[in-house]
Design brief:
By secondary structure, the protein is α+β, with helices and mostly antiparallel strands. It has a domain at 2-71: Alpha-Beta Plaits (2-Layer Sandwich). The protein has helices spanning 13-24, 49-56, 72-87; strands spanning 2-8, 29-35, 40-45, 62-69. Strands 2-3-1-4 form a 4-stranded antiparallel β-sheet, covered by helices on one side. Residues 1-68 form the HMA domain.
């Protein structure tokens, strides 16, 4: 996981919205934050910084300031959350006792076919 800091020249809210939408559509992005006063955009996730810059340059001037590995604290927080999620008790419902279960009816599969030989006076064409 990487943390990428980009210098982005965003003139107004519309450009900021377009830039955030473009970056959030990239594969591997986990979080995006923009500081308009300092003209910085922080991205985190498994991303290619060059790909992110090439997409953003369609809308505004963009430069890579910093690329570093994400802090271990974030990973530890995620591990704690996962452990807490595993410790949550799950209610498992038992099936009804056998006396309450529906038993399918037993149908006989026999059927009767009447042939023309049983009624010799009957019409064969019909």
């Amino acid at each position: 996981m990487k943390k990428v800091v980009l210098r982005v020249e965003l003139n107004n809210e519309r450009m900021k919205h377009k830039a955030m939408k473009t970056v959030s559509d990239l594969h591997g992005i986990q979080s995006v934050s923009v500081d308009v006063k300092e003209k910085k955009m922080m991205l985190s996730g498994n991303i290619d910084p060059v790909c992110a810059v090439s997409k953003l340059r369609k809308y505004c001037h963009t430069e890579i300031v910093l690329v570093e590995a994400a802090k271990e604290e974030e990973k530890e927080k995620k591990e704690k959350k996962e452990k807490e999620a595993e410790n949550v008790a799950v209610n498992v419902y038992e099936p009804y006792p056998l006396s309450y279960q529906m038993i399918p009816p037993q149908y006989s599969h026999g059927y009767y076919v009447k042939g023309y030989e049983e009624n010799p006076c009957g019409c064969v064409i019909c």
